[in-house]
Specification:
The chain has helices spanning 2-21, 39-53, 172-183, 194-203, 224-237, 269-279; strands at 26-30, 36-38, 58-63, 70-71, 78-86, 97-104, 113-121, 125-131, 137-142, 145-151, 160-163, 187-188, 208-211, 241-243, 264-267. The protein is an alpha+beta fold. The strands form 3 sheets. It has an 8-stranded mixed sheet with strand order 4-3-5-6-7-8-9-10, sandwiched between helices. A 5-stranded mixed sheet has the order 12-11-13-15-14, with helices on both faces. It binds 2,5-anhydro-1,6-di-O-phosphono-D-mannitol (AHM) and magnesium ion.
């Protein structure tokens, strides 16, 4: 696994450079979920594809920006599913964005996720890696070396509340629940980039991030293989929880298609219990 993590460190430096120097603007293409692709999305995708193909233990890759599985090394062991540049719609506003990697052994699904990693491109570049069964570790790029900042953990209760989706289309139970947390004193923290938003909750050791199903999109927006499962592994290993709208652990879900989405909730013990109560799935 270290071979993949080392390559992800190289990728982080190279994408950091692309974000600063690559020409912005859209191409005429859309990805499989219908989002218009930025030139930067494509450049990041190609870079990751090239680097993962060079990593001998990678058997295949699946990108959020492409349809289907791309074979890499015949003797490889792992399938890496990745979102090359999450939050690309906020990159031109110069907000933080990220790259997410799910590393699967066998058929990609929650149970076969063996490790994951994400990179945050903010004022600094940070990386979080997790191997199933171990703690998540946080690193920061200083000059050209990676400084380990220690293991990440989540307390029983936090102060932050971040919910995605168009509020007009939130189901009444979700709206009532989110407002009840604000009435308890929770603070709104939502940038529109799941990588910095989830990273902030982890760094502040608690809180809740929701991307619910809504009246206009019953499965929400976030894709299981590239976005949801990698964070579910991080949150659980940090001592938090990661569930769907039925109270089921996200890591127990099985996508039918690589680009399948699911409503998802990541948080500390207290907020997740309040959510289960509000959704009637306790
Ligand atoms: P993307 O993969 O096309 O960038 O979309 C995913 C992003 C997440 O980072 C973020 O949580 C979500 O979209 C924001 O969506 P919304 O504006 O609907 O809340
Ligand atoms: Mg994304």
């Amino acid at each position: 696994m270290q071979q993949i993590f080392e390559m992800i460190k190289t990728i982080a430096i190279e994408i950091g450079d692309l974000i600063i120097n690559q020409e912005m603007g859209y191409t005429d293409d859309t990805n499989t979920t219908g989002d218009q692709q930025l030139k930067l999305d494509i450049a990041c995708d190609l870079l990751i594809e090239k680097r993962l193909k060079e990593t001998e233990i990678v058997k295949a890759i699946i990108s959020e920006e492409k349809e289907g599985v791309i074979p890499c090394n015949q003797d490889g062991e792992f399938t890496v599913c990745y979102d090359p540049l999450d939050g690309s719609s906020i990159v031109d506003a110069n907000l933080a964005v990220g790259s997410i990697f799910g590393i699967y052994k066998g058929e990609p699904k929650g149970e076969s996720l063996v490790a994951s990693a994400y990179i945050v491109f903010g004022p600094r570049i940070e990386l979080v890696t997790i191997i199933r069964g171990e703690k998540p570790y946080r690193y920061r790029l200083v000059g050209s070396s990676w400084q380990q900042l220690g293991a990440m953990s989540i307390k029983d209760k936090g102060k932050l509340n971040a919910s995605g989706g168009t509020q007009k289309y939130w189901y009444p139970k979700h709206k009532k629940f989110i407002y009840s947390l604000f009435d308890e004193g929770y603070r709104l923290r939502y940038s529109g980039g799941m990588v910095p938003d989830l990273h902030q909750i982890l760094v502040k050791e608690g809180g809740l991030f929701s991307y619910p199903g809504t009246e206009d999109s019953s499965k929400g927006k976030l894709r299981m293989l590239f976005e949801v499962f990698p964070y579910a592994l991080v949150f659980e290993a940090a001592g938090g929880y990661a569930i769907d709208e039925n109270g089921k652990r996200l890591l127990e879900l099985v996508p039918e298609h690589p680009h399948d989405k699911t409503p998802c909730f990541f948080g500390s013990n207290y907020e997740i219990n309040r959510l289960k109560e509000a959704y009637g799935v306790l």
